[in-house]
Amino acid sequence: MNKELPLQHVQPTPSSPKRKWWRKLYTQRHIQTMALLGVVWMIIFNYIPMYGIIIAFKDYDIIRTISEAPWVGFEYFREFLEDDNLMNVIRNTIGISLIKLFIGFPLPIIFALFLNELRSVKFKKFVQTISYLPHFLSWVVLGGILATWLADVGIINNILLWLNIIDQPITYLAEPKYFWTIIITSDLWKELGWSAIIYLAAISSVSPEMYEAATIDGAGRFQKMWYITLPSIKSTISILFILAVSGVLNSNFDQILVLRNSLNDSASNVIDYYVYQTGLLSARYSYSAAIGLIKSVIALILLLIANGITKKLNDTSLF
Amino acid sequence: MFTLQRKTKGEALFDLINTIGMILICFITLYPIWYVLVNSLNEGTDAMRGGIYWWPRVFSIENFKAVFESAGIMTAMGVTVAKTAVGTVAHVFFTAMVAYAFSRRGLIGGKIYILLGTITLFFGGGLIPTFLLIRDLQLLDNFLVYIIPFLFSFFDLIIFMTFFREIPEGLEEAARIDGASDWSIFLRIVLPVSMPVIATIALFHGVWQWNDYFTGMIYINNTDLQPIQTYLYRVVAQSSSNQMMVAVQGSAGTQTVTSQSIKLATMVVTTLPIVFVYPFLQKYFVKGMMIGSIKG
């Protein structure tokens, strides 16, 4: 063993790479401990639940372990296809998610572009500070605020009555037809400023010389936005678009759980809520896990589509 | 507001409209919060008549007194403070530790570890398998359910790693020559120079912990262990369809509080701590968002 050091300078014997590997591992023992603590955590809290998905293909109940439960194949998936709630749940999930994506994704970019055009740095900071405040409120508190605003005697009804737009107060949260609008608007109110931060950061790194050159060429404010700012932050937009699409089916749950009730159920029941309802409230674990798996598959497909779209757009350079 | 550049009429008009638009956005953002605040500061039965928009009509702090006197709310507040404090410290420390290990060059198995983590960003078990795991781990109705399942996040690990990789290598080398172990390098050198990223992650996770009601809702039955947001959820969301209002005599005897006004006061009390800390941490989270999203 005391020949270890000189050995590095001679031809390695067949056994030495292995020994070297063990020695390296030994010098890394502290750092490996740190890393493995993280890996063990991931195996328990990420990978065991992934394994747990197989209860979707089994007849699981709480008196048996997962491996003891008998296989039933696609039984629960077939049952979901015959479920009366299927169409409604799918329509609400996809509908709310897509509208959120098409409104909630571009608006922060537009907001950031216009915020960037403010000449006073102080005023810009002020608007920013205020615009991300709602991000820090919980959906529970926001749900409370909305319930107060949208109540019979709430401020929205008062304004509309005063303007003679309606002649009877409306119970907005009890009517399915208003639910999507409430969801989309309140989400925008909460997240507009926060989502704009990243675009503002990207815009601030665009070289000022490009704007000066464009000004000399006679470009106006909108032309500079369109021909310089947007192309410069294109890669940020692409990455965030992929992230937005891959998370689109997850973005609703906290909010919907707070705003839904039995009266607006036909517009508010989404896959996540249905999983919660069948799984945790009715204890139909296998059925619920099957529905959750269907959602994951849809989310994965959306992710691949979004990735494909941004790849294509960036290659053919839309801007 | 003045620049040396000559402004055309069109430019001036653009600036004017843009400024007005921004003021409008600020108003729309702040007003709903203001509305809740002034209504919570108004005497309960009077507030039921509506029409309080700018300032309390009959000023009263009875609602807040009632909130602080109610045992259930104070217990829930204590649980929230505890879970936010313990959860945030534990999450930041554990995630930073793993990130430090993962970011070390030449770590045996490093690529596999990072692949394992990346997969978790896109796939998960979902609600039911996670619930069954938590149940099997005996974490139901256990305070640790707020801490252990949220010790680690691979997304936050990426933010930490990006930061750690920019720490000059010489700093660690010098400590190593002085005989420092990996643990003491992490604790005494890496952590202290990483305060900006620690503050960012702590803010993100702290706000999440403070606002999370779902964990308390599905894993906790014992009301002594429920956080304030879960408490509020049970009051707010479940009564939103029936605007039932019960007036009760306030502690002073002359003024009254209603379930509605207590609800508003609880919302204010729940939110105030966050509103107070966030302007101070603003510079950190803006920086953190940049590290996390552009490079990650």
From TrEMBL, chain B:
Q: Which Pfam families match?
A: BPD_transp_1
**In its keyword annotation, does this UniProt entry include Membrane?**
yes
Q: How does it sit in the membrane?
A: Multi-pass membrane protein
Q: Where, subcellularly, is it found? A: Cell membrane
Residues covered by the ABC transmembrane type-1 domain = 77-273
* Gene Ontology terms: biological process: transmembrane transport
Q: Which GO terms describe its cellular component?
A: plasma membrane
Tell me which UniProt keywords the record has, alphabetically: Cell membrane, Membrane, Transmembrane, Transmembrane helix, Transport
Q: This protein's superkingdom? A: Bacteria
Q: Where are the transmembrane segments?
A: 12-34, 73-100, 112-131, 143-164, 185-208, 262-281
Say if the entry is tagged with keyword Transmembrane.
yes
Family per record: Belongs to the binding-protein-dependent transport system permease family.
Protein name, entry field: ABC transporter permease
